[in-house]
Each structure stands twice: as C-alpha cells, then as structure tokens.
Amino acid sequence: MPRPRSIAPSEERTARLTLLIDPRKKQVFESLCALEDVTPSQVVRRLIREYIEEKQGRPWHDAPAGTPRRTPGRSAKPAAARKP
Question: How many helical (H) and strand (E) elements, i.e. helices and strands, does the chain have?
Fold first, then answer.
C-alpha cells in the first residue's frame, strides 16, 4: 500500500537536489522516516523550508518560479553582490 504524500499545495517538485551521505546515515534516516510514515523527500523538503525561514527571519511563501522575493526597503541583490 503506497504511503500518502503530503506536500504543501503550492509546492511543486520541479528541481532535483543530489547529495552524497554516509550509507549508514542514509539507512538510519530512511528507517526513522518509515517510522513516521513520511518519505525521506518530504523530510528533506521540510528541513530546507525551515532552514530558509530561519535564515531569512520570515515565513516561507511559495512564489511563482523566477519571481524575486523582496522585503520592502531592501535591495533585491544578494548581500554578496551589494557594494559597501
């Protein structure tokens, strides 16, 4: 019986992220996901979303692809690209 998928309605899976991890960590991670009846992809997407929210200091709101996210009064350029 397939597990139900629970992703945010506006969240689309259009990009692939490939990473290398220790095989033992992968096995433990997959086992823990199975205990919670979630897929590893669901957990990784949630962790990435939480990381973005933590670093940006605001909730993540999905926007159409290619739409720059701006905070009023702030430059659209990344901090590294701004001149001091």
Answer: 2, 0
Query: What's the token pair of residue 1?
Result: 């019986």
pTM: 0.59
What does the domain layout of the chain look like in residue ranges?
20-57
Note the pLDDT tens digit of each residue in 11-68. Answer: 666 889 999 999 999 999 999 999 999 999 999 999 999 999 999 999 988 755 555 5
What contacts 29, CB < 8 A, 6 or more positions away? 21, 40, 43
Gap between the Cα atoms of 39 and 33, Å rounded: 6
Whole-angstrom Cα distance, residue 39 to residue 56?
A: 26
* DSSP for residue 74: S
